[in-house]
Amino acid sequence: MIGSWWSTSGKRLISILSKICWVFFLVTLPVSSFPFFPDDIGGGTLVRPLSIYPLIILLLLVILPRFFAKPIPKTILSFLPFVVIAVVSSLLATLRGIEALQGVSILMRMFRAVATLGIGGAIYIVVTLWPVNKEDLRFSLRWLYAGFVLALFWGTLQAVYVVQFSPRWFDLISSVQRYISIRRLFINRVSGLTYEPNWFADQISLLLLPWLLAAVLSGYTVFKWRWRWLTIELFLLGWALALLPFTFSRAGLIVMMVLVLIGILFFRSKRTDESPETKSSRRFPWRRIGEGAILVVILGGVIFFAGSRNEFFARIWEYWQRTPNQGYVRYIINYFEYLGFGARYTYMETAYQVYDDYPILGVGLGNYAFYFEERLPDRPLAVIPEVLRLVVPVPGNSRLITPKNLILRVMAETGMLGLVTFIAFIMAILGCALYLWFSPKIEVKFWGVGGILGLIAFGLVAFSFDSFAIPNMWVVFGLITAAMRLSQQQFSVGGKI
Fold first, then answer.
1. Sign (positive/negative) of CA torsion 311, 313, 314, 316?
2. Could you report the per-residue pLDDT of 265-297, keeping only the tens digit for each?
3. Which of 47, 210, 271, 318 is most buried as measured by Cβ atoms within 10 A of its Cβ?
4. Helical H runs in 189-249?
């Protein structure tokens, strides 16, 4: 009897602890470079997700026992070939006798890179397996929103000094930010709870906007409250769209505009077009195009207003006021160089050169930095100060360069075999999202629309980041896989519709 009581109480305790850790994991996702991080688990890196702490507890107490006790979703199995190839490629790279760079040996680099892939894989598995029913999935999304309410609120406080700079207000916000992130705030950009504004923009555009857009477009909400067409998701969507321009992230704004246009044109619920007026115009979606155009104009106005507070960002449209004194092709090329894309293009071209030299298995995870200087394109570095600072030794600088592009990083560091297996994994995720989208059930379709928009966002954002430890894409992949798994367990229609 005591054993039975202990077994029941123990399971209840683990269940409560699991839910607490899960909430903490979701709420802390926006904190991506937590300053108080032990060196043994990545304290010397830029990517330091606070969510790793609850992730470890969830992995040990909940996921691993479930992982070995129940069948593994096939989508998780599709990720394993890429992991195997990445590890094999990294092990083979240690046999090439590569010398240490900036005090970092290839063995240290391998352990760190494989560890980041392990963190990303752990996030994906935990997000996939933690929900055991449809209410757990809704519960997860509600707390994900709660974390972003904190992030958006903190970003809004930063936007105050961007619109009208106040040294006292900036110093106050900065004094708090140092307990949240390892990097100081920008006086003319919003960083949220992250390391830099671009990271905050990626969080909003990849981790938040797809689900909010899917909810608003489909009329579905994971919350109990709604008043007619007004939902909490609609409020959060407006807040996120209004704040994102103040990050002045060009990639983030492109993703935002693309998601909004695609969402309105292709994913708006048909139930909103059932009036006689719209029935006669179904052959061509004039109404949707018009609504999309109006929304783009509004967002463009917000971007222009925000850009007027940032001289560097305003260069996007100020350049075209110049009269071209050379051919239009050269004029456009100069435009991208004027915007500062020269360094990114150099990183990408170098990554492709590394891949071209090691096309089968690449050079091993994290080892792009060791080949960077010798594979640099043959062009003057004086015109690209960012790259010049990286190749010139500076005392105390032990930060190694990365491609700043996830796809090219996979190509350079794991070769064609790694790229093929990674794309196969993404295709498996896409298959799950499409399956959910074609469902006749509103709630299941919501997860499909959000999943497709999330994958579109990932496809765009992947060209501006390259870390496997950033949780954004893994959380999106995990939610899609979890929704797919639960939909196959007779996912009934629910939520407020």
1. positive
2. 887 765 544 444 444 444 555 555 665 566 666
3. 210
4. 197-202, 209-218, 232-243
